Amino acid sequence: xxxxxxxxxxGDLVYLPCPEKPEHxxxxxxxxxxxxxxxxxxxxxxxxxxxxxxxxxxxxRARFVKDVNQSTSQDNTSLVHLxxxxxxxxxxxxxxxxxxxxYTASVLLAMNPYKDISELYGDNQCTRYRGKHxxxxxxxxxxxxxxxxxxxxxxxxxxxLLISGESGAGKTETAKIVMQYLGFASGATSDxxxxxxxRVLQAQPILxxxxxxxxxxxxxxxxxxxxxxxxxxxxxTLVDAGITTYLLESSRVVVHSSRERTYHxxxxxxxxxxxxxxxxxxxxxxxxxxxxxxxGGEEESWGQQFHDRDVQNFTRxxxxxxxxxxxxxxxxxxFKVLAGLVHLGDLASAASEEAEAAAASEDSSKSVELDDExxxxxxxxxGMDSSELGAVLKRRKLCVPGRNSFHEVPRTAAQFRQxxxxxxxxxxxxxxxxxxxxxxxxxxxxxAQGADSADHPEWRHIGILDIYGFERLQRNSFxxxxxxxxxxxxxxxxxxNVLVAEQSLYKREGLPWMGLNLPDAAPVVNTISKIxxxxxxxxxxxxxxMEKVATDERFCQRTIEDASKDPQRKEVLKQLxxxxxxxxxxxxxxxxxxxxxxxxxxxxxTTKGWLDKNNDRLLPECEELICDSKNEFVKSLGDTxxxxxxxxxxxxxxxxxxxxxxxxxxxxxxxxxxCFKPNEIQKPNIFNQRLVLDQIVQCGTIExxxxxxxxxxxxxxxxxxxxxxxxxxxxxFQRYGMRTFIEALMLAYEVPKEEWAxxxxxxxxxxxxxxxxxxxxxxxxxxxxxxxxxxVSGIIRKKWVRAGxxxxxxNFLPKFIAEVYATRAARALALHALVIARLxxxxxxxxQRVFERRQAARRRLKAAFFSVRLVNAEMAQVHAKRRQRxxxxxxxxxxxxxxxxxxxxxxxxxxxESEKRREAERRREEERQVEARKQIEDERKRVExxxxxxxxxxxxxxARKQIEDERKRVExxxxxxxxxxxxxxAxxxxxxxxxxxxxxxxxxxxxxRREQEEAEWQAKEKQKVDEERQHLEEERKAFEExxxxxEQERRTSVVLQNCPSPSRAKAPIVExxxxxxxxxxxxxxxxxxxxxxGQSPMDSEIQKQMDDRIKALERDMARKQEEVLEQxxxxxxxxxxxxxxxxxxxxxxxxxxxxTPGDRRRDASPIPLDEDEELSPPATxxxxxxxxxxxxxxxxx
Length: 1197
Prior knowledge:
The chain is of the alpha+beta class.
């Protein structure tokens, strides 16, 4: 706050800080009047609201009485007293009048009204502000935007608009208002400009859905920073645009507080998607998903208030996505990724309570069980294998020391949660970055459709920085430190920029510039940089598996210890203190956080989870899952960086991006808009002084006031001062002009000369002087007439003096110019003479040195000539000697040549023969090598052909497999699509087939039962035949015995009568007795019949009964076989009819493309028969050997 001089007297009007009481929770200051000034510097103040308050004089702020009209100041610098209390009072008064914009010098303060104000925006207002200077019309973002646009066109320099404020203050809406005016000011006469302007506005819903969320302080809070740039050509026409984003709060995707939400796009997708798409994504409208809900009990009912807005915004989001060039498939891919993230959030929803407790306590002995349904759904949406996804999240690979192998161990609940959250955050952040890149590409596509698509370095841009303001929440973490670092840098930049603006104003107004003391943000920035260095070091260790060494507590402890060694950082970073005060970082241990003193106040940070938040590198296993995804869109989100380092610092990247942003801003003329929220509940016509005061302090407005307080805080245009205080001087002073009137006013009321200054168009006053003039005007003070006469005479005298001085100046100038020329000529001559005098001795010495050098050169030349003649004589002698030696050598060589000629000829012949032999050997070797190479080449070609054939087979097999898979998938989709059309018919057919199958099954069971009964009957018949056979055998034996007896009796009678030979009578009987192989009595009887002629009637009767019995058995057996064959024939005919009907249905279904239910049930056919099965009757069941042989005997006979 501005420094007060503390010189208050009884009766002065003051503001006192409001005590923290429940009845004063929304008030920041209490107005009052000084009753008493104590000796110890304490003020006793009578409050306007009633009561007395004792306060130190240094805490009081001076205030002034408003005029009768209760007018407000459009510029805070024109207030009588410039301090935080008077600024707050002016803002509140203007807010009550719906005057939501106020200047503080060149900075625009914007108060969010939370309602529509009629006729405040639109084309009429744009036309009104176009081409007007700041101050000519009431404060407005249009004025700031117009100033930036005209400066860009006139100066051909980039412009920047910095829009800041806390969540809910209206930064995004203000940026939209500025963008609207820039589109209007540029004319948008061309189709390209109109399309770019529309595209810029249409990109905002996408960024809001993907980057905004509901927080405790704002229902549409931007959780990222963005720098929008619009480019203009030399004529000021809009030709291009671009968006750069900073520090998306990716942790909000997986964690958010109670009565808050994650990003809008998730809820908009669930509220706006049609039911068939929800079924495709395996989502249910109204279901509670872990990723989208927090631990609040009233979460579901509380979130219903946003349902209608979500539905409306979903339609707007889809339209905007199509506008930037995404197809329906691309939009579906985006929502598939979001649906996959929702299912990933529910992976551990079915985990046991022990696993959840382990996750909370980081118990290494507990693990998490995955929900199979959520796992399958997430894997399907993301194009991953469910088993691989579950394995990566549940187990991690450890490298075995000394071996080139890995060992898998289960992840603990905490490690599982970390891996899952990092995967979700990485996918969402990459989706956000991909969408922003697509928006920028859409601008390029539009620009490429214009008349000239080449790059133009002469284009200039206006940048609009919409960035989060200073944050001091109940629980501040890594994101808040990054945000506040950006605000520290921007605040320093803001202060320096305002200082330059002040210096420019002083220069423009013709006032001397005096240096001002500025707050230095370097200690805070240096401290945060050191914190990030410590964080990077421990994050590197944490990412490489050193979890026991690198912990959040260790990082906090090392940071505090390192800061305590530096005296400068020691004053910035403090250790946490044990405090029960509400609003502090509740329940934090001493090693879980620290406190940093920022320009806007102290902030307590908790360091829990910083090591994980600072790592932008995903686990290698998770990265492989993304890169190997079957979904091409998800696969494109993979990180293709070949440098597989386990750690990539977010803090380092953020600092680099911040430096790039500041370098970009350094090329721009900057304009500032500070946005404020008047209340926490976001309702109209409510003004919370404490809340607004905190924002005034945090946005740096008080620092701006401090800078102005050290100079001339009150700067008023001449017109305003003349109109305001014209009653303090007689009307006769009006004719002297505004500048002379103001100067006379200052002299008449004895304002000290060092307390005011006149510029070219403004009056600059020190603090308190404007208040003194206001008091005089309120009291009706009148200056002393004698003093006015003196002032008038002084004015007249000054005018005469000025006129005389002007005449004298006109007369003096020609003489002065002539004297200047003469003086310059005399100085030049004197300088020339002085130089000559000084250079004369040096010139003589130089001439002497030149003469000596010439003599030496002549001597050296003569010596050179003599040396040349001597060298030539010596060279002649050397040449003669060389010629003689050459003649001797040639003579010797001729003699040696003559003697060596025969030997040389022989040697040549031998060498020629040897060369021929070597040549022949070389040729043979070459032939062998050629043959070997040919064989190798043939072998290589054969191997290559085999390889090509194998590859072709593999490719063909893979292609066939892919085609078959695709055909199956298409067939399944077609069947699914046509299933609804034939559902009724299929149901009826299935019921009919089911009835037929049941009947066939019953018949089959009946046949099986009959077969079983037949088998039992056959067994019984066999047993009966065996019994009969045994009985016949016994009867045969008895018959044999009787026959023997009868034979004996007959023989006796024959002997007695005829005396025949007994051998003939005995032969058949003996033969029958000896024949053990005769199986039945029929053959024996036949034999007897053929052997005997006069058998008795008893033998014939027995034989006849046996034959009748055998024939009856055979007839019964044949009848039963015919019945069985008839039943089998009937069943086969029914089965053939059923097969024919199924064949016809399959033919019809094949023509229509729909499989019949019979095809699906073919494997369950009630009577499975092979096509080649013959309908031949089964073999005759055995009915006893006697019956078989009897039948065989009759057939043979």
